[in-house]
Description:
Radius of gyration of chain B: 20 Å
Structural class of chain B: mainly alpha
Low-confidence stretches of chain B: none
Number of domains of chain B: 1
CATH topology of chain B: MetI-like fold
Helix content of chain B: over 70%
Shape of chain B: globular
Order of helices and strands of chain A: EEEHEEEEHHHEHEHEEHEEEEEEEEHEE
Number of strands of chain A: 21
Mean pLDDT of chain B: 89
CATH superfamily of chain B: MetI-like
Strand content of chain B: under 5%
Low-confidence stretches of chain A: 365-371
CATH architecture of chain B: Orthogonal Bundle
Distance between the termini of chain B: 38 Å
Order of helices and strands of chain B: HHHHHHHHHHH
Number of helices of chain A: 8
Largest interface: A-B, 28 and 23 residues
Number of strands of chain B: 0
Oligomer: heterodimer
Amino acid sequence: xxxxxxxxxxxxxxxxxxxxxxxxxxxxxxxxxxxxxxxxxxxxxxxxxxxxxxxxxxxxxxxxxxxxxxxxxxxxxxxxxxxxxxxxxxxxxxxxxxxxxxxxxxxxxxxxxxxxxxxxxxxxxxxxxxxxxxxxxxxxxxxxxxxxxxxxxxxxxxxxxxxxxxxxxxxxxxxxxxxxxxxxxxxxxxxxxxxxxxxxxxxxxxxxxxxxxxxxxxxxxxxxxxxxxxxxxxxxxxxxxxxxxxxxxxxxxxxxxxxxxxxxxxxxxxxxxxxxxxxxxxxxxxxxxxxxxxxxxxxxxxxxxxxxxxxxxxxxxxxxxxxxxxxxxxxxxxxxxxxxxxxxxxxxxxxxxxxxxxxxxxxxxxxxxxx
Amino acid sequence: xxxxxxxxxxxxxxxxxxxxxxxxxxxxxxxxxxxxxxxxxxxxxxxxxxxxxxxxxxxxxxxxxxxxxxxxxxxxxxxxxxxxxxxxxxxxxxxxxxxxxxxxxxxxxxxxxxxxxxxxxxxxxxxxxxxxxxxxxxxxxxxxxxxxxxxxxxxxxxxxxxxxxxxxxxxxxxxxxxxxxxxxxxxxxxxxxxxxxxxxxxxxxxxxxxxxxxxxxxxxxxxxxxxxxxx
Lengths: 371, 231
């Protein structure tokens, strides 16, 4: 199933003009507040109407300004998970979950109630009312409610934004399971890059009401022309690795990429699994000669490809290690002291303990199509 | 315990109040929805019209009804000719008079509860596939229940105490329109009626207190069904 979106709309002073498409899997709508992400999702859902454009889901036209088609929200069959859950306060969790089921058309692939309850671990909550749930529990119920209406795509508008970091960490594994088990296009709005790294297959980068770029997360991060969009995110680069071995004794996992090894805290995935790791620039140091007597586990030989400014005191370096590039953030003073410049051969150092689960995405997904 | 006169006035008052609330509730909901949710030219005028019975001398409202719905009034004559309905000097007319007098209170309570509803919940129901009427029945209506109950009971209580518009429009006919309030008035007008007047007054006070307590209890119950912590 493919979701194709091309819309233009004017709202007061703000103009939205966006085009993207996504297949099954998670497409992150990423950008700063006010870049038009939520408006775009509302247009897809049919909660607002665009001035021009066309929206289609698997060949079913939901909106087409040229032929005057506007399918109302309740007939679009798009599951919408809102930032603030929006559970019905007068119903139990069970009735909230069942609300959309009667409206799914005959013959539609509506997921099994028990399966969704198990997926999101909702069984202990079924007879409670929304007011007695924690923020994380509410959001899980909201996701279940959207799934159980049998949607053909899921829209998630910053579902974790109102949760604190601890609860967010508890919910992310559920979203990963959702991504892996539900075969639907999922549009996931976020302005937090860590969520994008964990969940997204493709990235739709929004800026000022427009799509600045659209493609695989790793490729977009590697594009020099898009650096400014990630300047405050400490985004760095994504390294695609394969699990080489686990060490139960030291509670560590060794990953392989190019000719290099990356040691990280012990992972649950099996040996051989493909893993995507975000290496943040601030966690990477640079040395001119191979350091001896050092606690750092990951020391890679590489070549500086590019240097660009990152704030008043620092720069970022792109360092190529084999076929992979990583980014390092160092001070301007270090650049002067060490004479760092493109073409120079250096050693990149990454502390194992700096890379925790937040920066690692499991099973890497297929390349999503472009519109 | 109660004399025949008292029992008759009490049942009549309750019957009139019940019909008045049941008959006006759908209109109350409709007008409250219009006032809470729609924007249109002349909205202020509708608001004034709904609130008018609250500030007008009740006699004026009753006289207006008599002019309009009396057997010689334009609407009254038409109703009798075409539908055989007569309201003036009937208990049904008393119910209409009390419904109009209680309408501002009813609309106000319902409107407040509609305005307190988070409309994003209705939006969410829409994204789950529910059409508008279903959203109204399953989300909007349950969430405005506290206002419906409060409005209904306020209007019921108002009806029990209604006097001026009622006596002007339907007079004070024993067994037909002699409500508690009308009976009290009647007994204050006859020499030696003090004892009877006092008994009726006590009955009236007891009834009003019971209605208001019931209103509070029901509203609390409705709120607790929506938000167990807010009650």
